[in-house]
Amino acid sequence: MQVERSSHPAPRPDPSAPDREGFRHSFCADPLSVRAALRTTLARFIRQMTEEEAGTLEIVLAEVFNNIVKHGYGDSGKGTITIALSRDPRGLSCLVSDEGIALPDRCLSGIGDHPRPVPDTLPEGGFGWFLIRDLVEDLQYSRHDGRNELVFHLPLAPLALAP
Q: Which GO terms describe its molecular function (predicted)?
């Protein structure tokens, strides 16, 4: 399954590239590690974005990470989540990967097809995926060799304009 919101595909972050703007972090799939990973990731990019952009990044990553912990690994605390981010002129290109169960089709279906959902009518986790789809661009999901990869782009103000 591949889902896209934009006509400009998100460049995939290359975790092995020695880019001064790049970042890669792997952590255990448990709630405390998610909290620490969010702090580490935000600290790495905080000087390259506005406060509002940092809040958006935190919301998106928290939703993605917590969905992986809860649904991908079943709250077992076993497993690893890896994030790779790189800054480009339009914002942050993000790749989140894990070896949990495959993402159900319903999580990413319907982009642009439906108005903002009513939270009370959504299944467990449904509003989180709506937020993710609403806040990022170029959202793509793939699974190969037992690995999930979620790629997206978070638009940011040009570096010269960010405080």
A: ATP binding; protein serine/threonine kinase activity
